[in-house]
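Feature request, filed as a ticket because there's no other form

It would be nice if the structure record came with a short human-readable summary line next to the tokens. Right now we just get the raw output. Example of a typical job, pasted below so the devs can see what we mean:
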Amino acid sequence: MTSVLAVCTSEKKGMKKKPVDEVVIKEYYGVVGDAHADCLTHRQVSLLAIESIDKMRSKGFDLNPGDFAENITTEGIDLVSMPIGTRIKAGNEVVLEMTQIGKECHAACAIRKQVGDCIMPREGIFAKVIRGGHIKAGDAIKVAESD
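Raw output as currently delivered:
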């Protein structure tokens, strides 16, 4: 089964995010209350698979959802293999459209300082919000059906 493993927010950019019970995602904006939310960018929401985090854990690092500053940690869905433009449905309401795979990692990010590497530049996914709503850990996540 593919699912949302965790939803995370942070008050400031450049820091790890902390898992929360639920997030509200606003159309064309991002996660309400998160430092990275912005209607002017194509990177309104970030996603990272637990399988990517596990790659770093296998190197001996103690890492958890949110440590790579992702808003949504997924399980069982191969995000990196999906093309830009793919729409993803999370929970009962939210629809995200993939806009970018990977990103330039700034040297000052918290995880790079801690472990000397960051998986987000290679496997982090960014999306814009097509339809908002609520998401929580345990919600289903899948490729959205075409309208």
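Something like this underneath would help us a lot:
The CA atoms of residues 51 and 75 lie 7 Å apart.
The mean pLDDT is 88.
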